[in-house]
Amino acid sequence: MPLTTFHLGIALGIGYPLRNKIHLPTFLIANVITDLEPAAVLILGLPFPHHGIVHTFLFSVILGLILAFIMFKLRSLNFLYKRFLINSDKELPFKSYLFSGISGTNLHVFLDSFTHGYMFPFFPLMDNYLYNEETVPIAIAIITPFSFVFSILGSYLYISKFYAVLKLNNDIKIYKIDKLIFILAYFTAIFSYLHFFNLNLFFSDLIYLIIINLLILISVLIYKRNKEIGLCTIVFVSIVTVFIFSLSISAKFGFYFYNPVYLIPFVFSAALFIIFSTKIIYNNI
Q1: 192 phi and psi angles, rounded to 5 deg
Q2: In a domain, 11, yes or no
Q3: Model-level pTM greater than 0.85?
């Protein structure tokens, strides 16, 4: 899988239409919490594989169960979920939390198993029966577009809900600090790609830059003509840009093993786009 963001995107694409059947916040967290393992290994320099015991179906069931229990105990936070449009329209029973937690963690492991040969998802069996070195390029070619499509679908459904709320409230709130964050995020995004222009990924970087610039330009022009649609488009483009970063990072650091220091501008820009989107949604709900 090309980084954690696509796990989150798939969860949003699958979970948002089903948010009255499953507990969406639990499902979203369940799809990404497993990647705390490689994060801890990388940050702390632990002598363990990036995808170890946590990336097994057995541990995923346990982790999903614990997460479901915690989220059920925290169901009083529904007011916050409502503020960010990820709430259910009705009170859900514990079994919905349980299904969301266990299915989310196991979906993560299932998708990762096709592209990580050193995983042992069927622990205590130490073989990965879902991995085949000869078919890895095929798996990546299938899973990556699948991930991207579901990520865009989930983002579109979410933004559509946001647009409906904006139309109902008829009161756009966007402050100078929000504009400053967006501008800083944009220029940091441009800077993120500059280092790689003298490397063998120049063409793909150029395509990504053209796409990002076109999307942002179009969204700003739409905002000038229609503030509701424009604001939704800007938030949507911010989210899409983070997914594009995932493709870039996956190519550069997953396959070419560049210095991880060069991740910093990507991460900083992505964080700014996320902060911008979060503030806009929170201010206007």
Answers
A1: -60, -30
A2: yes
A3: no
